[in-house]
Design goal:
Elements: H1 2-18, E1 24-36, E2 38-42, E3 48-52, E4 59-60, E5 66-69, E6 83-89, E7 91-95, E8 101-109, E9 121-129, E10 138-145, H2 154-157, E11 159-163, E12 166-172, E13 177-187, E14 191-198, E15 207-211, E16 230-234, E17 240-242
Parallel strand pairs: 2-16
Antiparallel strand pairs: 1-7, 1-9, 2-3, 4-5, 5-6, 6-8, 8-13, 9-10, 10-11, 11-12, 12-15, 13-14, 16-17
Length: 243
Amino acid sequence: MRSWLLLGAGLTLLHGAAVASPLYSGTIKGIFSDPVLSGTVINVDGSASAVDNSGSAVFSGAGTDQIEWGACDDSCGDVPRSSSVTFTGESFADTGLDVVFKLGTLTFRNGTSFTDTLIFGATLTVGVAGASAAIDPALARLSFLATTNAGVDKFADADFLSFDVLPITFHVFEGATAVADVYGYIHEDPHLVFGTITLPPDQSDRGFLAAEPASVALVGLGLAGLGMGRRMRTGLGMRPVLQ
């Protein structure tokens, strides 16, 4: 009788091992692609204007982990003359399904550029390199937005990114660079899923995060259909300058 009990216990353990959730390991990698060359800008008076930069946009980095856009000359002053977004992935090990972990960081530099050199968004594809098992990547459409710079309130003047898969916007003060942490998880199939982004306390003097509804006012400015836009300042005798 004892031997049968031991055998039954052994079969139970084997069955439990067979149905245990798999664990995954690998390194997260991100690539930007499909830059958006037309969109909307917000004029100094708050009105919205459609812009097509198909023949004038200045950008680089499509197909890499950093996309950079915009250009300016000495009229922009002593500030970064282009903007960029960089994704830096993290390694992970022995992670189960639906367990939230850090995918990496998103670094946003808010520079100043001529309006006709802008792009208005890009696709971020985040996948797993060296995975212990095949994992489908996660995709997010990023929209690049900016605010009119009145020089009174740095929060109101901050440019920001929005995400089609997250109800959060990532704002960076004019001329600054901020780094946000990106979290996600592996879901059944399996495939990677974006979860949320957070901003470490030491980045609070460079930018902030806001719930997407905080940006609903843009809808009234003609951005509802595009989900993106850039605001600009017009200098006397100059091309429009991005802020």
